[in-house]
Amino acid sequence: MLLGKVIQNQRKKLQLSQAELADGICTQAIISKMENQNISPSTNVLISVCQKLHLTLDNVFSQFSSLPSSNLYLDKFQAMDQAVQDKKTTALESMIAEIKEGALPSSEKAHLHFLLALLAESKKDSDEAVFQLNYSLELLQNRKTFWGTIIYSELGSVYLDKNQRVKTNYYYDLAYSNINNITVNSSTEFYYYRSVITKIATWYMENNNFERSDSLIDMGLHKFDKYFTGKFTDVLYFTAAQNALNSPPIDYNRLSHSLTTSIAFAEYNNNQALLDEIKQLMSKHNINELKIKP
């Protein structure tokens, strides 16, 4: 029996309407029948709905439990996102070549073209990256979602590399305006979320918008903590320290705690470049002793 309540609860958790869930897959009426009457659609529709909701067939329909999860595109996208996280560009390119775009719902098509943009960036082709990112945005019915926010931020980063600061600020502002409203549903999504937080918090710090930078750091360090990772934590605390130094009167307890924690995570991440930056900052400001908060 189809567990329609599972689909409905996950849809609401992701803040999707029935129409948004149905987009590119089926009609809203079919979604309604699935949720309210436990009526099973075709297998292709059910798989697409699961992909969009980040569910497996096991979650929603027990008779499919014997099917390997590799039948779902969800697993392939998770593998591709992991390749991004591990900086395995060749593996990412190979996996993308196996995806049949026509079978994907619009949200996953946007996800796919986001990954194509990252590939273009790895090849220093910023024009192709901008094209892929803008195409991704066109595929999204609602841009105030996880992927809309991530794509806005990536556009800002591309323009930052091109030294086009006005466009960088424009897209970072768009990402910032919605980042507190998005939901993270996996460790790979948390990686993108943390990456965005770190980039934009650093941008605002460098442009003297310390309040926005601090609000992002707080989100990055304390929101979705079940997915917590050491990645980016060192940079976030270092940015917090720089904000403290530039926000008189200086809170020396906060400054000391941020630097101490940044050093600890930089050592854990083997981030020698950041350790060198911390050393330079401490020397410049004559900071000789650090104390972590009790």
Descriptive report:
The chain is mostly helical and 294 residues long. The chain folds into 3 domains: 4-68, lambda repressor-like DNA-binding domains (434 Repressor (Amino-terminal Domain), Orthogonal Bundle); 72-164, Serine Threonine Protein Phosphatase 5, Tetratricopeptide repeat (Alpha Horseshoe); 183-294, no CATH class. 68% of the residues lie in helices and 0% in strands. It is built from 16 helices and no strands. It starts with a helix and ends in a 10-residue tail after the last helix.
Shape by Cα distribution: elongated
Encode the helix/strand succession as letters: HHHHHHHHHHHHHHHH
Structural class: mainly alpha
Rg, Å, rounded? 21 Å
User: Counting H and I runs of at least 4 residues, what is the number of helices?
Assistant: 16
Largest beta sheet, briefly? none
The fraction of residues in strands falls at under 5%
Span between N and C termini?
53 Å
Low-confidence stretches: 63-71
List how many beta strands DSSP finds: 0
Number of domains: 3
List the helices and strands and how they pair.
Elements: H1 4-13, H2 18-22, H3 28-37, H4 43-53, H5 57-60, H6 73-85, H7 89-97, H8 106-122, H9 126-139, H10 146-161, H11 165-179, H12 187-206, H13 210-222, H14 233-245, H15 252-268, H16 272-284
Helix pairs in contact: 1-3, 6-7, 6-8, 7-8, 8-9, 9-10, 10-11, 10-12, 11-12, 12-13, 12-14, 13-14, 14-15, 15-16
Summarize the structure.
With 294 residues, the protein is mainly alpha-helical. The protein contains 16 helices and no strands. The radius of gyration is 21 Å and the shape is elongated.
